[in-house]
Amino acid sequence: MTTTLQEGILVGCGNPLLDISAIVPLEFLKKYAMKEDDAILAEERHMPIYQELVDGFQAEFLAGGSVQNSLRIAQWILGQPKVAVFFGCVGQDKYADILAEKARSAGLDVHYQVKKDVPTGTCAVLITGTHRSLCANLAAANNFTIDHLEEPGNKALVDNALYYYISGFFLTVNPPSIMKVAATAHANQRPFLMNLSAPFISQFYMAPLLAVLPYVDIIFGNEAEAQAFAEAQKWPSEDLREIGKRLVAMDKLNPSRPRIAILTQGCDPVLLIQQDSVQEFPVTKLAVHEIVDTNGAGDAFVGGFLSQFVQGKSLDVCIRCGNYAAGHIIKNPGCTYNGKPEFVE
Predict the structure, then answer these.
(1) Is 275:250 a contact under the CB 8 Å cutoff?
(2) Fewest beta carbons less than 10 Å away: which of 9, 130, 296, 342?
(3) Where is the active site (predicted)?
């Protein structure tokens, strides 16, 4: 980091979750009717899972939630605190304290809305070999309300930001807040970035997703998320490039800034899809023994991307940094990093 960035230029909204991460046998997934690489919201039958991980496995606590993860990674690479501001809702409990401490020590400027009578959200991260399955109990995260963004101090933070990032996961919580941030970005001609987040978002939350999409300048997703979107739209879903082209061609409020789609596909190349081009960016393949767990790889990719994007770097530099960050995270447990970043443009 040579240039000093203004504080608070990047605002993110999402679900702050305390990740409870543990290596478990496949039987554990079956017990909770889960599959490898699932990303689901907890139902009643899943509620005992969190305590069971703490009691029966060597569970680790990590600051989680997709957007919070991405912003932590961006902060790590930038090496300058408080470039990113994060909004989300927590309870008033020890998990919230752990979350805030971990997020702030990562350089993130967190402004949580606090709900006294609801526990802080948790996410069970179940690691089976190189697979990871997520079961999120949003709890307090589900209670985020737009009035938190309308408090004068918070409103100033939103108004003064230069870049905005929101996950598709937040569509399940508070679409009015997303629309407010999107409208602010649009009014000020500032980039609004969003993530498809998980297949279930396209399957069950397509209406709020389509409402915000005209504001979205850059959309991220992996192959499963892009295919789920295509299927929900009744598009052919085999060809990722074709899906990306259709995504960027959908209605957009500010046609002077054409939409960009960035689709990841594991160890296959990242696709950068613009109006008239599709570019591929190869991913450095890791040896099997280097892969600790893939949890947070997608979040890390976005974090790496954002760290360069807020510095005005070109898209190819942003994507290469995304690939660097994802590759680093995969070698560590959960969405964690170690040492100083070694990304070279």
Answers:
(1) no
(2) 342
(3) 299
Distance CA 172, CA 197 (A): 11
Residue 100 tokens, joined: 């805030």
Tell me, yes or no, if 299 is annotated catalytic.
yes
d(CA 311, CA 299): 19
Q: Which two tokens stand for residue 66?
A: 């997709």
CATH number belonging to domain 10-16+65-119+138-330:
3.40.1190.20
pLDDT per position as a tens digit, 174-187:
999 999 999 999 99
Whether residue 126 contacts residue 132, with contact meaning beta carbons closer than 8 Å, is answered with yes
Sorted by where each begins, the domain ranges of the chain are: 10-16+65-119+138-330
Question: Which has the closest alpha carbon to 270: 235, 295, 300, 293?
Answer: 300
Q: What is the pTM of this model?
A: 0.92
Tokens of 291: 């892969």
- Predicted confidence (pLDDT) per residue in 237-258, tens digit: 889 999 999 999 999 999 999 9
Look up residue 181 and give its amino acid. V
The catalytic residue among 19, 38, 293, 299 is 299
**Long-range contact pairs involving 262-269 (C-beta distance under 8 Å, separation at least 24):** 262/218, 262/219, 262/220, 262/221, 262/305, 262/319, 262/322, 263/220, 263/221, 263/222, 263/223, 263/226, 264/220, 264/221, 264/222, 264/223, 264/298, 264/301, 264/326, 265/222, 265/223, 265/240, 266/222, 266/223
